[in-house]
Amino acid sequence: MGGEVNAKMLTAQIRKEQRGARESSFVLDVSIEVPSGVTILFGPSGAGKSTLLDCLAGLVRPDAGKIAAGADVLFDSERGIHVPAAKRRIAYVFQSLALFPHLTAEENIAYGLHDLRNGEVQERVAAILQAFRVEKLRKQKPGEISGGECQRIAMARSLVTEPRVLLLDEPLTGLDAELKSAIMDDLRAWNAAKGIPILYVTHSREEVDALGERVIALDNGRVAGAGTPIDVLNAPRRKKLAQAAGFENLLTATVLDLRETDGVMRVRLQESVCEIEVPLGYATAGSRVQVAIRAGDILLATERPHGLSARNVLEGCLASLERRGTIVIARVDCGVTFVVHLTPGAVRALELTAGRPVWLVLKTHSCHLVD
Amino acid sequence: MEALWLSIKLATCVTAILLVVGMPVAYWLAYSTWRGKFLLESVVALPLVLPPTVIGFYVLVAMGPRGPLGKLWIALSGHGLAFTFGGLVLASVLYSFPFAVQPLIASFEGVDRRLVDASAVLGAGGLRTFWKVILPLSLPGVVTAAVLSFAHTLGEFGVVLMVGGNLAGVTRTVSIDIYDRVQSLEYGEANRMALVLLVISFAVLSVVYAVNRRVWTPWAAK
């Protein structure tokens, strides 16, 4: 098994400096290993995810480093090797999908097969159209096809060439969860036989949980962690990563007192009068800490709740509601502003409108301390 | 009418040459990352700002029997280049160069870079990407370039006069003919030719604007 994996593994050490228009320059400096199967490349926007994929695909030349697929060296700055993108056999599905607008779905898919016999092209295109359930769209152009189906066609176009690596740059953004997992299931089914390394880029914590495989966390051009989603993302040691990982609420707090016997400490949030109880950390009274809370971990009530085990109940005012896809983002002003994720159904059932008084409930262990 | 046909023949030749020569130049200007690119861009745009007499003058000197181009041409063909149809074509190509190249650059640059990247990732080399992706998506720009080159050549006067002179059936184009008619007070004839030129120019510009308004773009989303 180990040998099989190594034969296909994508390995890369990349250093790439990007000079911005202003003096702010960005340095990508990473070393990654992508075995066969799905690996998630996770990080906030601006972490360097797309630059990394562009380097792997050969669209951008790194300043230094080495890229290899199995034993084949694709880039080596010391030996002066830079295999052009067209010869790397690395498939890449862009965030924008980049389907050719003047070609039909079928022509788009056949685009990468120009050196095959006509009959074989037909066969392969027909097979992949079926595998991704888009046969009926063969003769249509991308402008006439819905978003989710375009995403299927873009994947089919990349995979029909039998690449040795697949790079996916947030290809499923904007799709609902059900459609997303349906497409991912088709992708997994396809890859069951091929077993190529698939690097899937996302900045959404939900997608990481849904895909649930190996994660490489990228932050500010560096690898911040690699391993299982739980290991990498549930211990938010880095502020930006915490934000990206769905800790939408990142608050500075002052420690008021420590209660070692209860395993908790009380903190005051930012400059407000808001006090909450958080797990005991290495801190002394009067010191400053960072508290990270996931928007999805906060309960919202329209009356003051009673008889709860949760220790933190905050009174506030619902400042705004904003629907985004299948979630509603609520902002609640309790002296500090909290972001709370609700379902559209809950918003309807509670008849929530901006301006009404609400109560927030925070479990002590949903409040994570970040250094 | 001889003058009109000559003008159309000249404009057709010039347009064909400009498309063939202009495309690689425009491609290079659109995609090169060379920092000195602006120099070539300036050279390409020169005919827009120079009086036709200046271009005509230098072309004439270069094509003369002592000029480098003239010498070469005489060595190759045995006769001079100045005051011939060939000479006129060459001068017109230079004069209309920006009218072909600039719309091509604009439309090449307008092609989504990710489509070019996608083509490369799918194994296509530069030439295949150009034919299969960049050119089809730049069709409005190509039509604009062709039509503008044609119209601009059709209407030129100064360069033709400097380089071609005024030889009936060889270099007397419609604009020169009109000038001649006015000089000899044949206002009726002059008006007829001028009107033909006016109508052609209007038709040609309508095509350009219609194409750029995407009236006929076949792949536009409905």
Question: How would you characterize the overall build of this protein?
Answer:
- The complex is a heterodimer of chains A (about 375) and B (about 220).
- Chain A folds into two domains: about 1-235, 3-Layer(aba) Sandwich (Rossmann fold), CATH 3.40.50; about 250-370, RNA polymerase II/Efflux pump adaptor protein, barrel-sandwich hybrid domain (OB fold (Dihydrolipoamide Acetyltransferase, E2P)).
- With about 375 residues, chain A is of the alpha+beta class.
- Mean pLDDT of chain A is about 85; it is low at about 1-5.
- In chain A, helix 6 links the parallel strand 8 and strand 9.
- In chain A, helix 4 (about 120-130) packs across helix 5 and helix 5 (about 145-160) runs parallel beside helix 6 (about 175-195).
- A six-stranded mixed beta sheet of chain A has the order 7-8-9-3-10-11, with helices on both faces.
- Chain A is about 25% helix and about 35% strand.
- The two termini of chain A are about 40 Å apart.
- With about 220 residues, chain B is mainly alpha-helical.
- In chain B, helix 1 (about 1-30) packs across helix 5 (about 85-110), helix 3 (about 50-65) runs parallel beside helix 9 and helix 5 packs antiparallel against helix 9.
- The N and C termini of chain B lie far apart (about 45 Å).
- The relative contact order of chain B is 0.15.
- The model of chain B has no long low-confidence stretch (mean pLDDT about 85).
